[in-house]
Amino acid sequence: MAESPEGSLTPAQFEILQLLWEAERGLSAAEIWEAIRENRDVSRTTISNLVDRLEKRNWLVRSKEDGVFRYVPSIDREVAEGKLAAEFVGDFFNGSAANIVLSLLGSNQISTTELQRLKAILNESKSRKK
């Protein structure tokens, strides 16, 4: 069984994972670089270094296909987002999910649609716990 990913992610590393979650058969470092440089100026070396670090920390799995290394995430998007959210809440909101929601409500960062979605999620969670 593969080891769990280590550490947290920078926004640039998370951007790489987002690309890979969307790719059906993974991407090479060059393909990752090409996709990212469409939106911002970044060197190929920078992307290669980020990919290498992600692989060493078990966020990515590498396989060789037709002489090219292809990378895929070692973890599902939902699991990764949950891990990152838990770390964020722990680091900045004393481990309280309620505190982060209250902060968002107080800053008007949650739309009516998102509030309805949160209510539905809470109701579903309550039903599962009964």
Automatic annotation (TrEMBL):
Belongs to the BlaI transcriptional regulatory family. GO terms for molecular function: DNA binding. InterPro entries: BlaI_family (IPR005650), WH-like_DNA-bd_sf (IPR036388), WH_DNA-bd_sf (IPR036390). It comes from Bremerella cremea. It comes from the Bacteria. The keyword Phosphoprotein does not apply. Keywords: DNA-binding, Transcription, Transcription regulation. This is MarR family transcriptional regulator. One of its GO terms (biological process) is negative regulation of DNA-templated transcription.
